[in-house]
Amino acid sequence: MSVLAIPFVVLVTVIVGSCLQRVSGMGLGLIGGPILTLFLGPVEGIMVINVLACINAILTTYSMRENVAWDKWLRIGPFMVLGSIPAALLIARIDTSALLVLVGAALLIALGVVVFGRKFVPEMRGTGPSISAGILGGFTNTLAGVAGPVITVYAQAARWPKSILAATLQPCFVIGGLSSVLTKYFLGSGGFEGLHWLVWPCGIIGMCVGILLGKKIAGHVSREKAHTLSLALASLGALSALLRGISTLGA
């Protein structure tokens, strides 16, 4: 693969993911996590998506700030830091092939929980479930670049109004992305040394383009359709990462 192919993949992936996240509340981590894992590896790929998802969520939080329920965020967001620590320690102790399998499997499980969770997860009340959702969301975000599925299922079980769900997810992604990067970096389980410098400007440009496109189509594409497309694309990427990891185990 040519030197410029990776930055181009990052550009296209981030445009699509940011656009769908602006419309449905999730997308960048769901789509970017498995795709960048395939092209950059399970450590660097998720580190890049953690950084970009954090920046994207900051911008999206500002644009959707009127609908953010900060009291609900306080019962989830800070506890994501606790979940990021064991995930970072796990990443430091397993090889690349096993990590690919783990990332792909974690993504598929998370996606399955989103698809079937609303049918089987009972109504939740109190602080215990919200704290658990924050810890588990921090773990999956650090490991696989996705916190949205876990928090979305909890929010549905807690009967959050739809009007605040997509907006309140964004500051959760901010603290999730920040804690994921910092814990992996300082615990020695991740870094950016091997990345081409064009990855970052391509990621930022893709994010800005995606958010602008998302704003334009938000009134024409339903949140449910955008959410379904995000899940479908993420499932294909997660399955590809899982199969690649299995094929290289023991190689």
From TrEMBL:
The chain crosses the membrane at residues 35-61, 73-92, 98-117, 164-182, 194-214, 226-246. Keywords: Cell membrane, Membrane, Transmembrane, Transmembrane helix, Transport. Belongs to the 4-toluene sulfonate uptake permease (TSUP) (TC 2.A.102) family. InterPro entries: TM_pro_TauE-like (IPR002781), TSUP (IPR052017). It is a multi-pass membrane protein. This is Probable membrane transporter protein. Its main location: membrane. It is found in: Cell membrane. It comes from the Bacteria. GO terms for cellular component: plasma membrane. The keyword Transport applies.
